[in-house]
Backbone:
């Protein structure tokens, strides 16, 4: 089970690769943009470093026009933390960012609201799960109630979750017979390889948000890729809170649920 972490440790062993991760944490970058940060390093060397990071599943590459854009994938770092650090600490679940709280936050004691800007964010992540693809897909859809921790229900009201994995199906939260919230609506299904859902995921107002799960399997290990894009009037902290939320949901909660089932 731990052999898959070897490429991760190898990828982190070089200072240039660690610096690349720091750069990608701030924003996605093309290979050329990354190369500009290292004038003393050849483009070929940067490409070799990127290959090592890809083998460690620390970055994902997506084609945009004639360029390829590199994105940080922090999920393996969370897994490493859980394996080597988290087991020696008290559970940090209560301190992790809650999507609902981040969306509804109105500021601190000064009552200053986060600024709204018309912008776009894109989150790309990959989680490796030691289970067949069909099992992971079923957990993502039919068993979502078993691992999806976040809720939109008013404080103190227990709720239940369901996801109907058919075109037009809803990812629905209910806290009584008539009250509830829609986390998303399914608009594309190719089970068990891909499912696309459109929904605000706790964000409010003039926001268009959609997320996609893509699943591939090799030697009994499923690679779950997440793509989440949002545009519109977006608060400053929403991208970071959703990135951390996805890392926790898929890289910790879903992964643990499936692998221990």
Residues:
């Amino acid at each position: 089970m731990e052999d898959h972490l070897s490429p991760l440790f190898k990828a982190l062993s070089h200072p240039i690769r660690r610096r690349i991760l720091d750069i990608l944490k701030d924003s996605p970058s093309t290979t050329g943009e990354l190369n500009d940060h290292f004038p003393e390093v050849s483009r070929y060397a940067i490409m070799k470093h990127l290959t090592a990071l890809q083998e460690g599943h620390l970055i994902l590459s997506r084609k945009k026009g004639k360029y390829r854009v590199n994105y940080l994938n922090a999920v393996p770092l969370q897994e490493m933390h859980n394996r080597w650090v988290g087991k020696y600490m008290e559970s940090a679940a209560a301190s992790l960012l809650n999507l609902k709280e981040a969306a509804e936050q109105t500021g601190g004691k000064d009552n200053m609201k986060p600024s709204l800007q018309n912008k776009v964010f894109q989150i790309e992540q990959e989680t490796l799960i030691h289970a067949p693809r069909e099992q992971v897909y079923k957990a993502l859809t039919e068993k979502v109630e078993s691992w999806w921790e976040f809720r939109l229900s008013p404080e103190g009201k227990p709720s239940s979750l369901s996801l109907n994995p058919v075109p037009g199906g809803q990812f629905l939260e209910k806290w009584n017979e008539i009250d509830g919230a829609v986390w998303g609506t399914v608009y594309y299904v190719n089970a068990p390889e891909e499912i696309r859902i459109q929904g605000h995921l706790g964000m409010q107002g003039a926001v268009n948000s959609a997320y996609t799960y893509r699943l591939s399997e090799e030697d009994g290990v499923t690679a779950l890729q997440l793509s989440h894009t949002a545009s519109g009037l977006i608060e400053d902290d929403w991208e970071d809170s959703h990135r951390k939320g996805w890392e926790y949901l898929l890289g910790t909660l879903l992964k643990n649920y499936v692998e221990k089932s």
